[in-house]
Amino acid sequence: MSFRATILTLYPDMFPGHLGQSLSGKALERGQWSLDTVQIRDFAEDKHRTVDDTPAGGGAGMVLRADILAKAIDHASDGGDRPRLLMSPRGKPLTQERVRELAAGPGAIIVCGRFEGVDQRVIDSRQLEEVSIGDYILSGGEPAALILLDAIVRILPGVMGNDLSGVHESFEGGLLEHPHYTRPQVFEGQEIPAVLTSGHHGDIAKWREAEARRLTAERRPDLLRK
C-alpha cells in the first residue's frame, strides 16, 4: 500500500513542486507514494466560480465558503479512512511524532486555506484536523502542505537510501541533532574533533549524545523540559 496524498487547493499548479525532485520525486515515479490535486473552484456554482465571501460580523479579508469546500472534501474523501488536514496557523504544531503517525497510514487529504480563513462550519462538519508548521503567516496553505508532505515522504519505507538516516536526526530522540564533520581533516585552522577519528564507537556515541544535549539546552530548552 502506497501513501496517497490528495490536495484541495485553488492553485494546483503549485504541486508537486520540489517534491517532484530528488528522492521524493524518484519515489513518486516508482509509485511509493502518489499525489493528486482537487481544484476547489471546480465546485463553485456561479459563472464567476466564486469560492469566498465577506466575513460574518464584518472585518477585513474574505472567507472560504463552507458549502463549496464541503463539496470538494466530499469528492476527495472516496469513502476511505485518510485523515483530513487543514493547514492553518492556529492548528496544533506539527511534530516528528505526528509525521511518523501520518507516514504509517494510507495517506491524507490536505486542505490548503486561502484568504482570511475557512468557514468554521466546514471545519467542524468535515472534522478537519488543523495543522500548523510554525508561528508565522503564509499567503496560503500550499507551501505548508508541501512542507508537511516533504516530512512524510522522506521517511516512507525505501525512500531514503539508508533507512537509519531517518532515525538519527533532530527530534527523533527528543533532542536536536549533534554536529557533523567530514573531510578535509583541517578547514581554515579548525580540526575535526579527535574523538570522531579515534575509531572508538563507544566514545563517539557518548560525544554525540553530549553534543546533542548541549545544543538542545542552548537552542531548544523546551525540548529538555518535555
From TrEMBL:
Keywords: Cytoplasm, Methyltransferase, S-adenosyl-L-methionine, Transferase, tRNA processing. CDD domains: TrmD-like. HAMAP family: TrmD. It catalyses: guanosine(37) in tRNA + S-adenosyl-L-methionine = N(1)-methylguanosine(37) in tRNA + S-adenosyl-L-homocysteine + H(+). The keyword Cytoplasm applies. It is an enzyme of class 2 (transferase). GO terms for biological process: methylation. This is tRNA (guanine-N(1)-)-methyltransferase. Belongs to the RNA methyltransferase TrmD family. S-adenosyl-L-methionine binds at residues 113, 133-138. One of its GO terms (molecular function) is tRNA (guanine(37)-N1)-methyltransferase activity. It is found in: Cytoplasm.
